[in-house]
Specification:
Blueprint lengths: L7 E4 L4 E3 L13 E6 L14 E3 L5 E9 L2 E10 L4 E8 L13 E4 L13 E3 L2 E8 L2 E9 L6 E8 L6 E9 L2 E9 L12 E8 L16 E2 L3 E4 L8 E8 L7 E7 L11 E4 L13 E4 L13 H6 L1 H7 L3 E4 L3 E2 L10 E5 L6 H13 L3 E6 L9 H8 L2 H4 L4 E3 L6 E3 L16 H15 L4 E4 L7 H10 L5 E4 L15 E3 L1 H11 L8 H11 L6 E4 L9 H5 L1 H13 L3 E5 L20 H16 L1 H5 L1 E4 L2 E3 L4 E8 L2 E8 L5 E5 L16 E4 L7 E6 L2 E5 L6
Parallel strand pairs: 1-6, 21-22, 21-32, 22-25, 25-28, 28-29, 29-30, 30-31, 31-32
Antiparallel strand pairs: 2-4, 3-5, 5-6, 7-10, 8-11, 9-10, 11-12, 13-14, 14-17, 15-18, 16-17, 18-19, 19-20, 23-24, 26-27, 33-35, 34-37, 35-36, 36-40, 37-39, 38-39
Helix pairs in contact: 8-9, 11-12
């Protein structure tokens, strides 16, 4: 039985994938889509396939019908005006790092073309290679690949002018037996709209599955004043979903609340009504401290890592103070890193049995630590039996992968991203693939507490929406989307890689940017349209990146790590970061690690755990001054509690003057810190601190 799928929101010029939920690939031909209603002037149609890519051609509301073996389903697609603008990428010959005569081929690659090597080729115009396309407003990283080689590329970021996206939040409450849903819409920081000038569109549907008869109405009586919707108690029945978008120059990420009634028949007016916000993270994942383990390097130099060896080291994780551990892939794979999956239903032989994995998870749970499983479903290993049969032409498996014809050679090849020759992409247009991967989700979702989803940007939104509806309410979905994209928060993921802060902290550590740029990185989340409910994973390194200490030095590492722990979101340590490691996937330095650095990271964990204001408070700018651009200061505030944070990324202690009265205890170290009051009537009035890496102090609230 299908669950009810949500409306889809898009713009003209951007197609949306629509697919049957919980599909049965054995009756693929019995699924069909039709366009039941479309706006005036539209001629949009759908194909005869079970999975379709619907491209609205004018703004407005489209109604599509899915005919399936067990009934019919209706899908709404709301298309907003096209916001894309012409984007022109240029590479002058003067910027070529190799002689022009050695350039045999050139292509451009970026998130806008799914990082596909060789797909888009620039033209040569007046001494420069030029590529034009249409892109929405924002920052668009790219690379010109010389001779189609990823190791020989000229990188850049193209800024397309235009406003950011508005944001919206829905809240629901019982009122006199009815349910009142209220929308809080906020304009983008660079918008010409005021908050109260934004339009809000509501869409109300069923929560529970059920065939839709022609002409049936889901909700008969709804009152709305543009910012609120009132749903009578007898209209709730077995549940409703309320979706909403804010609309200004652009539309927001859609928000959703689910109204769940215990009385399925709707006859008991005293039955309890429950409110659920799917876009919110699980309570335990609102601001956890995450620890990533590159599995096969963790046990040490002379001991092979296994689930048993991991379990023996759980006391270390508990002592360190982490809330959840993310393991790199633990399923069958021929590689050390595990991202080339050959068996999705069995743990890797060298790591141990499923029972031993379950024992490790149980030990973590006993220690109060959640476990995040690395879900790799964009691709498989080319040694997976399904790919081998697909490549050999076995009919049942041929469409499991994306096969493309090379425009230059005419050769048919399986699609891969970047230069990942050993990991071909699954074809999500295949119901057999969707069924297989949904079974993978079901296999592991009941055992662990969340998925970190590898190459999330390479999997269709429609599939992630189904996964999010499939897993338990308290299950975490963390996306690897680079660069981060708020579209993946729309009923899909609740935690996201913060690629913006990551890049900013790197640039601050190398001296390319001032430390005050952390404010721009935080503001960027609002500009691009992330709702306040989104949790951002704050990190300085991971298994795909070089070590921060190697690139920026030990002193900058301490400040950068402190930034991730003193800003909102979920701070993450990559195994060995706290031990001073410089090899990005090297053996964990148990014996010769940096004990002082370990103590420092443990203190950050403890401080964040003890101070709820660091987890849940707002970020407030403070008046501060320093002679060094490597210094920044800010406040975290919640209710009556306010703390001031000062960070120093430089190699020497720096004096920082803050315009607040503070207590003299550093909450990270517990030691009294020297302070001095300066009040000469000029720009240097305030409290003066000497900061080595980080200082966190309580503000007294007293006037100067």
């Amino acid at each position: 039985m299908h669950s009810v799928a949500p409306p889809r929101f898009t713009t003209v010029g951007q197609s949306v994938e629509l697919a049957p939920r919980d599909p049965d690939p054995d009756v693929d031909s019995e699924y069909s889509w039709t366009v039941e209603a479309r706006p005036n002037g539209s001629s949009a149609v759908v194909s005869d396939d079970a999975v379709v890519h619907f491209a609205p051609d004018v703004p407005g509301l489209y109604r599509l019908r899915l005919t399936a073996p067990d009934g019919e389903r209706e899908r709404l697609v709301r298309a907003f005006p096209d916001v894309r603008r012409t984007a022109r990428f240029e590479l002058p010959l003067s910027d070529l790092p190799i002689p022009h005569e050695e350039l045999e081929s050139i292509c451009i690659m970026g998130p806008f073309n799914e990082q596909l090597v060789g797909r888009d080729r620039p033209t040569y115009e007046d001494g420069a290679y030029v590529y034009e396309t249409k892109l929405p407003p924002g920052e668009h990283p790219y690379g010109f690949l010389l001779n189609d080689d990823l190791t020989e590329q000229v990188r850049g970021t193209l800024s397309v002018p235009g406003p950011g996206r508005p944001r919206i939040r829905l809240d629901a409450e019982r009122e006199a037996g009815d349910v009142l849903v209220t929308a809080d819409a906020k304009a983008a920081p660079d918008s010409d709209y005021a908050d109260d000038e934004l339009a809000v569109e509501f869409y109300i549907g069923e929560r529970a599955p059920g065939a839709l008869a022609s002409g049936e109405k889901r909700v008969h009586r709804v009152e709305s004043d543009g910012r609120t919707v009132r749903i009578p108690r007898d209209e709730i029945a077995d549940g409703r979903r309320v979706h909403a978008v804010a609309v200004g120059e652009r539309h927001s990420v859609a928000e959703r609340v689910e109204i769940r009634g215990d009385d399925e028949a709707g006859r008991n007016r005293n039955a309890r009504t429950r409110i659920h916000r799917p876009n919110d993270p699980p309570e335990w994942a609102a601001s956890p401290t995450v620890y990533e383990i590159f599995v096969r390097s963790f046990a040490g130099e002379t001991v092979d890592t296994s689930f048993t060896e991991l379990e023996r080291r759980v006391p270390y994780l508990e002592w360190l103070g982490v809330d959840c551990v993310w393991l790199t892939p633990v399923l069958g794979s021929p590689t050390t890193h595990g991202y080339h999956t050959t068996n999705y239903f069995e743990t890797a032989d060298d790591l141990g049995t499923r029972a031993e994995f379950e024992s490790f998870v149980a030990a973590c749970h006993d220690a109060g630590i959640r476990v995040i499983f690395d879900l790799v479903i964009n691709h498989s290993s080319r040694d997976h039996p399904a790919f081998q049969m697909s490549a050999a032409g076995v009919p049942e498996y041929r469409d499991w992968y994306v096969w493309e014809e090379d425009g230059e050679t005419g050769e048919t090849k399986a699609q891969r991203y970047f230069n990942w020759e050993r990991i071909p992409n699954f074809n999500f247009d295949s119901l057999a693939v969707r069924r297989f991967l949904l079974d993978v989700v079901d296999e592991w979702a009941g055992l662990v507490d969340g998925f970190r989803c590898d190459v999330a940007w390479g999997v269709p939104h429609e599939f992630w929406k189904e996964v999010a509806d499939r897993v338990p309410d308290d299950f975490l979905l963390l996306d690897e989307t680079i660069p981060r994209d708020p579209a993946y928060h729309e009923g899909e993921f609740t935690m996201h890689y913060d690629t913006t802060l990551y890049g900013t902290l790197r640039d601050i550590g190398t001296g390319e940017k001032p430390a005050s740029d952390v404010f721009d990185a935080l503001e960027d989340a609002k500009r691009v349209g992330f709702p306040d409910s989104a949790v951002h994973l704050r990190y300085v390194e991971n298994h795909d990146e070089s070590r921060y200490r190697e690139e920026c030095g030990r002193d900058a590492l301490k400040a950068a790590a402190a930034a991730t722990f003193t800003l909102p979101g979920a701070p993450m340590m990559y195994y060995g970061q706290e031990r001073g490691m410089t090899e990005y996937r090297g053996t964990m330095r148990w014996d010769d690690g940096d004990e002082v650095l370990t103590t420092f990271h443990r203190s950050l964990c403890e401080t964040r755990d003890e101070l709820s204001v660091l987890r849940d408070g707002t970020v407030e700018r403070v008046e501060w001054e320093s002679d060094s651009e490597a210094v920044v200061a800010f406040a975290r505030e919640m209710d009556a509690e306010r703390v001031v944070v000062a960070l120093n990324f430089s190699e020497r202690p720096q004096s920082v003057r803050i315009d607040e009265r503070i207590e003299a205890e550093d909450l990270v170290t517990g030691r009294r810190i020297p302070t001095a009051r300066r009040d000469d009537g000029g720009t240097h009035s305030g409290t003066e601190l000497l900061v080595s890496d980080v200082v966190v102090v309580r503000a007294t609230g007293e006037s100067k």
